[in-house]
Amino acid sequence: MKSLAVTLLVFLLMMLGTVAPIFAEDVYVKGHLRSDGTSVQPHMRSAPDSSYNNNWSISPNVNPYTGQPGTRQPRLNDNNNSGGIYQSTIPNYGPPRPSR
After folding, report:
1. How far is Cα 40 from Cα 30, in angstroms, rounded to an integer?
2. Which of 1, 36, 71, 86 is most buried, judging by how many CB atoms fall within 10 Å of its CB?
3. For residue 66, what are the CA distances in angstroms to 10, 14, 25, 44, 69?
4. pTM of the model as a whole
């Protein structure tokens, strides 16, 4: 019985270790005033990285919080965390989802 509990605990910790990074991808941005006086409302954004295509504003990505599809065209040559080497990336996200 004790070995079963230990095995289950190890399994749960392994699952948490593989699933937790998925939830760490989004960043909360506090509301603030820009230097030009523009008010920015608090919002969520994707975590910063070196990839242009890894953003909700890039088509065909969809913002999971607002449901709005990306409108900017993806770049075919994108720094996709490959050690600074630009590689051709052609996103394959499947057919676009219908807007709600």
Report:
1. 8
2. 86
3. 37, 32, 16, 10, 9
4. 0.47
Instruction: Specify the 3-state DSSP secondary structure of 43.
Output: strand
Per DSSP, the three-state class of 2 is: helix
Q: Residue type for 62, please?
A: V
Q: Is residue 75 part of a domain?
A: yes
Could you report the per-residue pLDDT of 27-39, keeping only the tens digit for each?
Answer: 899 999 999 999 9
In a domain, 41, yes or no: yes
Specify the higher pLDDT residue, 64 or 89.
Answer: 64
The owner of tokens 């960043």 is 27
- 56 belongs to a structural domain: yes
- Which uninterrupted H or E stretch holds 94? none
> Is residue 96 situated within a structural domain?
no
| pLDDT at 40 exceeding the cut of 60 | yes
Range of the domain at 74: 25-88
Based on the structure, what is the number of domains in the chain?
1
